[in-house]
Amino acid sequence: MNDTPLTPSEPAKPSGERRQVTVLFADMVGFTAISERLGEEGTYALIQPIYELMAAAVKEQGGSVKDFTGDGIMALFGVPNALEDAPLRACRAGLLIHERLVAAAPMIETKHGVRPQMRIGINTGIAVVTQIRSESANKTALGDTVNLASRLQTLAEAGTVLLSEATNRLVHGMVETSFAGAHVIKGKAEPQKVYRLDAIRHGAARFEAAVSRGLSAFVGRERELEVLERGLDEARSQPCVIDLAAEPGMGKSRLLHEFRQRIGKERAFILSGSCSPDGLQTPFLPFIEVVRGSFQVSAGEAEKEVARKLGMGLTHPEGGSGGYAFKHGICMPGVVSLFSKPATPRLLLIRLLPQRSIMTACAF
C-alpha cells in the first residue's frame, strides 16, 4: 500500500489571446438603496426581467453577456466571433437597453414601486481573451480595455451612454456624440476624453463614414473594374448579375463606389439597397432602402406620408429623384406596409420599365 500523501495537481497555466474587443458595462443607478427597500426576494423579482431585457438587446446586436454583476452586466462584442463593426453594435445595444427600459418603466414602477435607470460605459481596445477555469468555463476578457469601460460606466449619468475616445473614433460619422470632457480616471496616467452617445445615424455604415472623412487614393483594381465595365455593356442586351465576394475589409464597397463614380449618371440609372447586421429582423430590407432613396422616404414617416410620396413619384415619374424607374405593377399597399413596424408585407409586385437594362452588383 502506498503511504505517499496525495497532492492536488497544479492548476494549468492560464492561456489567452490578444484580441480587439468592445466592452459594454451597464449598471443600475441607486441599486443599494433599492435592494434595501425591496429586500432579497423583491430585488430578485425586479432584477430578473431587467437582466433579460439587457441580455436580449446585447444578443440582438451580436454581443454576448459575460458577467452578471448583481445590478448590471458586462458584455463583449467581437468575442468569440470577430465583428468588423463591433463598436457600432455595442452603441446600438447601449441605446436599445435605455429605450426598452424606458418603455418598461411604468409597468415596473406599478409592480415594484421603483423606476429603474441604467448607466452604461463602452470602450474598445486590445484585451486578453481567456477561459477562466471555473464551473461556467466561459471565455471572458481581461485588461485595461475592460477596466476603462467599467470606469466610464461609473462616470455616466442615469440614462446615458459614455464612450471612450477609442470607441468614439471608430464610430465617427455613424453616430451622434457630444464631448463630455476630459476626466481623471483611476489607473490612467493622463485624463481621458469622454463622449456621450446621443443617437445612431440612420443608415450608418463604416464605408459611408469613411467617404465623409475623405478616401485615400484608389489603386490596384483595374482588372475588377474592367469586369464590371463588361457586365454593364452586357446588361444593355440582357440582365446581368455580378457577385463580389471577399473577406471583410478587402474593399468591396470601395470598388462599387469607384465603379459608380466612373460610369456616372449618364450611362446607367442606379438603385442601391444594402443589408446590415442590425436589420436581420427586417423583411425586404434592401428593397426598403431602394424605395427610401428613390422616393425620399425618411425613417419613421407615417404611412400616409409614405403613400403620398410613392403616389407622387409614380404619377409624375419625371418629378422625383428615382420614381421614373418604376411603372405600372406596384401594389401600393404592399409597398407602404414594408415601412410599418414591424414590417407586414401583404402583396409585392414590381415591374421595371422594359426598355431599361438591369445590372445588379452584389457585394458579400
Write the layout of secondary structure elements.
Blueprint (H helix, E strand, L loop, with lengths): L15 E13 L2 H30 L3 E5 L3 E6 L8 H27 L5 E14 L7 E4 L1 H12 L5 E4 H6 L4 E9 L8 E9 L5 H8 L8 H13 L5 E5 L7 H16 L17 H11 L7 H13 L16 H6 L21 E5 L1
Parallel strand pairs: 4-6, 9-10
Antiparallel strand pairs: 1-3, 1-4, 2-3, 4-5, 6-8, 7-8
Helix pairs in contact: 1-2, 6-7
Short description, anyone?
This protein has 364 residues and is an alpha+beta fold. It is 39% helix and 20% strand.
Structure description:
By secondary structure, the protein is α+β, with helices and mostly antiparallel strands. The chain has 2 domains: 16-209, Nucleotide cyclase, GGDEF domain (Alpha-Beta Plaits, 2-Layer Sandwich), CATH 3.30.70.1230; 221-363, no CATH class. It is 39% helix and 20% strand. It has 10 helices and 10 strands. The strands form 2 sheets. Strands 1, 2, 3, 4, 5, 6, 7 and 8 form an 8-stranded mixed β-sheet that branches. Strand 7 and strand 8 (192-200) form a beta hairpin. Helix 1 crosses helix 2 (86-112). The termini are far apart.
